[in-house]
């Protein structure tokens, strides 16, 4: 199956934006051991004058993830004539997402328990009780049963997306039959529901962005010159910043902009590099909070000054080492377990 390398590099860049936003975890009030308040310390962060917008708004990378997922699912499931059973669909999702989620959940739970034992409080101000551990365990930590973020908090977005995956599967036959026509109708319905304020849930926002990604998939697969997509994406990107920031326009137009360069990505070395970086995305997303917890705890044990987090050398060392860890975890844990689970449960 074709792999879109422009999407792979976009996945990686959006994961970096989330990591830059969460760099604030090294400072107070997020880090209970730090006397440096983030709102003051952020002015001295590495390259702040150039990437302050990522430190402040990097969380929008999650919204881009939703759109990318919609594109990928359309490519995998809607372009194929093969009928996919719910068993196959769900096992493929579990095999890809659950092993790392389970490992990081246990790691963070243990880490927070150690912090609470030693300092009388949790390192990061999340809810870390048995009830929320149960929600995390079953991937429903953001389905409306929770009282707030808990344990390895970034998993909240994946939890929401799980619900959209189920919706996607329920609609898959209609989507295959009517494709772009139904997707546009569905998007209009979701927009109307959002504007009516009948429901105000994360699922609605995720669904709008997810299916906008599916629309982009069908658009780019029409026999249209890529230059048209580039011009259209730039116009929509510009319009998304007029007045209030329009996430629903920004995310699909950003995806469309990157896809307009797909035909220019040539050479096996370049493709392999983009593919490698794309593979790191999920690991970077789920590993960065456990890694931050470990660093802060180690700094406290060794009595290393917390203000080192403003240091440029530490900044690069942190991101490079996190990338290295994510690559090792993908090669030795995520990928092998994915194959084992699918082989045993699907015989593939």
Provide the fold topology:
Blueprint: H1 5-21, H2 38-41, H3 48-57, H4 60-78, H5 86-119, H6 130-137, H7 156-178, H8 180-196, H9 202-220, H10 226-240, H11 247-259, H12 268-279, H13 281-301, H14 312-346
Describe this structure as you would to a colleague.
71% of the residues lie in helices and 0% in strands. The chain is mostly helical and 348 residues long. The protein has one domain. The chain starts with a helix and ends with a helix. The mean pLDDT is 89.
Classify the helix fraction into a percent range. over 70%
Strand-pairing-aware structural class: mainly alpha
Largest sheet, if any?
none
Task: For the record, give the distance between the C-alpha atoms at the N and C termini, rounded to a whole number.
Answer: 16 Å
Radius of gyration: 21 Å
Overall tally of structural domains = 1
Order of helices and strands: HHHHHHHHHHHHHH
Low-pLDDT runs? none
What percent of residues are in strands? under 5%
Rounded mean pLDDT score: 89
Number of strands: 0
Shape: globular
> How many helical stretches?
14
Question: What key phrases describe this protein's structure?
Answer:
single chain
What is the compact description of this entry?
By secondary structure, the chain is mainly α. It is about 70% helix and about 0% strand.
